[in-house]
Automatic annotation (TrEMBL):
It comes from Kribbella karoonensis. InterPro entries: HATPase_C_sf, HATPase_dom, Sensor_HK_TwoCompSys, Sig_transdc_His_kin_sub3_dim/P. GO terms for molecular function: kinase activity. SMART domains: HATPase_c. Residues 287-381 form the Histidine kinase/HSP90-like ATPase domain. The chain crosses the membrane at residues 9-26, 38-59, 66-88, 145-165. This is histidine kinase. Its EC number is 2.7.13.3. It catalyses: ATP + protein L-histidine = ADP + protein N-phospho-L-histidine. It comes from the Bacteria. Keywords: ATP-binding, Kinase, Membrane, Nucleotide-binding, Phosphoprotein, Transferase, Transmembrane, Transmembrane helix, Two-component regulatory system. It holds the Pfam family HisKA_3. It is an enzyme of class 2 (transferase).
Length: 392
């Protein structure tokens, strides 16, 4: 219900933006292009400036990863237009409503979406562009000062709204993080109290059976069962430790992935692991670490089950970018033949659910005569993109 309400409100705001910008630009077009007393070269330049900045303001919703570029371009165009107006007097009759509204939208979006320092720069440069524009373009009389005051108020409102939205997002993320932490702790308790308890019982009974059947032919099988139970118990304890970790992020290390791949590729000698050289310096959330391990393990298990004739299997883990956002890409590909009839398992379904929960993307299917499973998981802003990985 809340999500539907938010989507409806978002559509209404987009519609209001579109109506306002189209209306103001239409009014400017009529006045600047068709009215003889306002169809001056300066007036036409101001109309083109408003139209360009309005287009950038509308595109920010279509390309949210390029907000910084849109804001910088809009400020540059506006300041250049103001500089031209300063040297050409009188540049044009009063106007610029479309440009002002578009700049206010971009300033609010920058304060909302960008990191702290870029957002502060957007607020400062945006205020400079809006406050000085009337005096640079139209002179310094009482009318232009009044216009400058009005545009200053509009600038302050856009910054305030952007910061309010930024604070709301931070509060929502904090609430989601707290909810996820509660779920992790609850799951850790269940794993410790139930799963680990039962596995321990299996191991103890197996050890007891080895004592009773000390000379029996079942010794080898019992040792294998004990070893498998001990490994499962250790894995559960590692998972419980990770779930209980108070740290918001943990390093994704090459050794962890190597262990995961070797365990899953037991009996498959043709696995080529390619990791970014400084992947161990990258920090991601525990959920992302768990998801990366699961994707690698499940993909290699599927290779053993469904493509046993594969000559080479390549696992690549590297940071990358998509639509201006940092991502962690996990790709497993093999040159074997996958059966056309679905196997009926839930491996890909489980991977997709995990990745969707992290706002990531999963693709699986044939590509260039290979079967590829590719997962792209979001990384924190500012994560550096290392050089390409090397084969191990």
């Amino acid at each position: 219900m809340i999500g539907s309400t938010n989507r409806t409100l978002g559509r209404i705001l987009i519609g209001l933006e579109l109506v306002a910008l189209v209306g103001f630009n239409g009014d400017e077009a009529v006045r600047r292009l068709f009215l003889h007393d306002q169809a001056t070269p300066g007036g036409i330049a101001f109309f083109v400036t408003g139209a360009v900045i309005s287009a950038l303001a509308l595109l920010r919703r279509r390309y949210p990863g390029a907000i910084a570029q849109f804001v910088a371009s809009a400020f540059a165009v506006s300041l250049i237009c103001s500089a031209v107006g300063f040297f050409v007097k009188p540049a044009a009759p009063f106007g610029g409503d479309a440009e002002t509204v578009a700049l206010a939208l971009l300033i609010g979006a920058g304060c909302h979406r960008l990191r702290s320092l870029p957002a502060a720069a957007v607020a400062t440069v945006g205020g400079l562009a809006l406050v000085t524009a009337p005096m640079l373009r139209y002179g310094r009389d009482s009318t232009t000062l009044t216009l400058a005051v009005f545009w200053t108020i509009l600038w302050g409102c856009s910054v305030a709204i952007g910061l309010m939205l930024r604070d709301a997002d931070a509060r929502r993320e904090a609430a989601l993080a707290a909810a996820r932490n509660r779920e992790r702790l609850a799951l850790a308790r269940e794993l410790h109290d139930l799963v680990a308890h039962h596995i321990t019982g299996v191991v103890v009974r197996t050890q007891a059976a080895q004592v009773v059947l000390a000379e029996g032919p079942e010794q080898e099988l019992l040792r294998e069962i004990e070893g498998a139970g001990a490994e499962a118990l250790a894995a559960v304890r590692r998972l419980v430790t990770m779930l209980r970790s108070p740290e918001p992020t943990v390093p994704l290390t090459s050794d962890g992935l190597v262990e995961a791949v070797e365990a899953a590729a037991d009996g498959h000698p043709n696995v080529d692991l390619r990791l970014a050289p400084n992947l161990d310096d990258l920090t991601v959330t525990p959920e992302t670490v768990s998801t990366v391990h699961r994707v690698v393990l499940e993909s290699l298990t599927n290779v053993r089950k469904h493509a046993p004739d594969a000559r080479t299997v390549t696992v690549t883990v590297e940071p990358t970018t998509g639509q201006g956002e940092p991502l962690l890409r996990v790709e497993v590909r093999n040159d074997g033949v996958r059966p056309r009839r679905p196997a009926g398992g839930y491996g890909l379904v489980g991977m997709r659910e995990r990745i969707d929960a992290l706002d990531g993307k999963l693709t699986a299917g044939p590509e260039d005569d290979e079967w590829r499973v590719r997962a792209e998981l979001p990384l924190p802003d500012g994560a550096a993109e290392p050089e390409k990985g090397t084969a191990l």
